[in-house]
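Write out structure tokens for Phosphotransferase family protein.
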Amino acid sequence: MSEKQEFDSRLQAVLRRVYGEQIALASANRLSGGASQETWLLTLSGTGAPDTLILRRAPEGMEATDDSRAIGLPNEARLIRKAAATGVAVPEVVHVLEPDEGVGEGFIMSRVEGETIARRILRDDEYAKAREHLPAQCGRALAGIHRIDGSDVPRIRESTGLAQVEQYEQTYQEIGVCRPIFDLAIVWLKENAPKPLAPLLVHGDFRLGNIMVDEQGLAAVLDWELAHYGDPREDIGWMCTNSWRFGQSEKRLGGFGDVEPLLEAYAEAGGAEFTPRDIDWWDMLGSMKWGIMCMGMYETFRSGADASVERAAIGRRVSETEMDLVNLLEGQRHA
């Protein structure tokens, strides 16, 4: 029996544990993921179960470690279930993998129909109505996320805005490349840090690419592995970061809308009342963070640690974030 056949056999046993012996795994096809985390489309036959499901897994030996920013897939599943209980649109978690099942660490969830590719969401006519609805829908979703009590979920850490500035400054210094606009942005962020708010659960990577969108708008919030306790403005500012507008820079919110409708819906759904200027600092933080991440990805390519074209291509985007930081700093100077 091949390794793939053994994997399929174990996965079928898991599905039968959940749905009964009448279920068979027709196919398991890997969709995406890196070396440490994978996404699979499962097609089932038989009665009493959905036709398709999604498996998120880390193979044995590739689980998130304690020093990782990721909370680990079992904890991600717990947060998704909590999000569903607060009314946030998420996939249904149908099973969390057990160690004795031999499939790795992860969970099986429902398949949500829609689109995650930003270029299509922002440009295709079939998502025109969705783009109108998304700002308010995202505001309501974030209000729900920020209400989640994750106190009983392990490995959710606290990360304030200033702590992230210090973290990424250290990474920048370790990379050892002098890019003056990042030095200036770091100084500005330290000198203009807003008064911190009481930490709430934040998604940590709320943006196009990590939400499922259908023709009516927000269908599901995905990819919760970077959830942590922090300032709720962080999630809003991250979606406003110019890199996540995917070329539609005139629309501050994700390239699809204005931030004001999100802020209004967020407050109406029980979140705090913020103004667009309250998000400016977090917008700057987002561009600084992503730029330094891009530097790090190029460094892994340059060093040979990961010689993939993807790492090199992302590394080239540092210059985009430099221009974003110039524009943001100029905007603050004239504000």
